[in-house]
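re: ur question from the group chat, yeah i did fold both. here u go
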Amino acid sequence: NQDNQKMILPVDGLTVYFPYSHIYPEQYHYMLELKKSIDARGHCILEMPTGTGKTITSLSLITSYQLAHPEVGKLIYCTRTVPEMEKVLEELKVLVAARKKEIPGENPKMLGIGLSSRKNMCVNEKVKESALPEANSGNKNSRSAVDAKCRNLTASWVRTAAATNKNIELCDYFERYEKMDSDTIMPLGVYTLEDIREFGKAKGWCPYFLARRMIQFANVVVYNYQYLLDPKISKLISTELDKESIIVFDEAHNIDNICTEALSVHINNTILESCQRNVIALSNKIRRMKETDASRLNDEYKRLLQGLTQVIHLKYIIFFLIFF
């Protein structure tokens, strides 16, 4: 079929599945250069004008390469913003749907996962409500509010305390997620953030932690730059990624700013005032401990001295009785 054949492209010996009936020459040359880099297990910087389809071009080439060479591992696609992430996942959905039609009698095994912050994935209404005041006021700390509330409901020490105190509140979605089998895998397919939220809510599982767990099973992972570049986050999220993986940084000219932000500390008056209160509280506690320890040490010294005096006095009496 002529229309079907337009979706299958030979690229330097690799069969590439492309979801549209037309491809720009620039897209084809882009695929050629990208394949050369993957073959060489090297690095490359590729630039295409806006609107020429670089996202679907890279997805088509890399996922086709994965299909032909499973040993290359996962595709880690890093984006700067959530809308860009959703766009990549939607393009991947179109690609996978087209690829299924192009491979007769075969269902290509593809699990594509998007991962974002708790704020964007949480389905616990109480947790989301905790961020409403900041979000309504335009405060960027709304994400921190969700993170803090989530940790207060899911931290190990909180859950341990809740085992003996029924008044301590926990997250039902996280508790049900923790009870799921460790080898549970989501059905094959491509999941946007909304898809994962709906799936998690239907199952009663926390979408955020579910997505984190599914990273180890996914063929394609789409998330923010920070999940790979920020040491504080990557050690929690990305440590279990395959050593052999293909990593794409979309809009890579933003990397330097992201790295600078990741390794920077932002201090404001609120933080300084909190630090001052903590230092004063710590200083007072140390002073009280010193006073208590000094008093305790002095009492111990007096008891020791009294004991020695009694021993010396007793020896003197014994000596006197023996010789006189």
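okk and heres the other one u asked abt
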Amino acid sequence: MAHILKSFAAKQDRRISKSNKNNVFSLAYHCVLLFNTSAEWRTRVFITTASLASLPAVFRSEFGTMVFHALYILIALLISEVSASQSWNTSVETNATCCEALRVDYRQNWLYSYRKLTGYLESLKTWNCEQFQIECSKRYFSVDEFSSSVYLHFCEPEQFENQTSNLSVPTSPYNATALPSPIQQIMQYESSQSFVEINSFGVPFCGIVWCGFDVETYQVLKVSIGSCLPTSCRSGTYVIMAVCGILAVVIVLANATVIVVFCRSRKPWSTQTVYKLSMAIADLLVGLFVFPASIVTIYLNIFGHRALILTPINRQTNCTGTDPTHTLPLHD
């Protein structure tokens, strides 16, 4: 009988030793899992609790095993809290980095078609960036009526609603007799799934020109930079084109006359004659090609309608390093 009891006790000792060894391996494994997982702290605690279910029952174990389980739970919870805190701090740092990267990128590329003021402010506001409050207070890009309306829409929505309460947006551009006003353009942005902004600072005597439309209005009404110009700027542009045309005609007629006179002259040609003739030919070429090309360039850049890259607005709800994508002109 004593031999049987001794043998049973030895088996129990081996069972307890093996259980403790398994517990040690399980603790090490779950510590690694908890440190590396990106889940929230509730998920981490769930992982820890689920792992306990695979261990021997606490109340069937010896006192040492019970102490081990208590320490296991305490350590696991501490690990969960520390990891959750690290994950939250990392998320905050990532969001701050993303917001700052967006701010720097937009300030460097705001004149290009793939960076738009509406998308920029919407990203800062959606991602809860501190740069959004700075933009609203400084309003760095408020250069005309349209950009001022964009800031009003995002920074002072209540005031924007008051100003637009009596306005309406045309339901179809096919029946429109004129382009929407700048504040109506922002109203289109609110309900549009595809929105395009166009801007330019190269219009003579006009400063920066900025406007935006939904895609249907942009395509149906053949919108261009010239469509957004104030009447005075548009008239000034036509005057510049007319002056270039008149100069081209005068230069061609004058230099053509000089060339004909030299060619019909019966006097021997001297070096001065050859020099004057070459100058007349050079000026004639300027009148024939340079001035007409300038007129065409001005017209296409200001009044030319540009094709679109159809990309719908992606209103993101978290920081991913890119601002919402808008429908873009093919050329800027």
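fwiw on the second one: The radius of gyration is 37 Å. The beta strands are 195-203, 207-214, 308-309, 328-329. idk if thats what u expected
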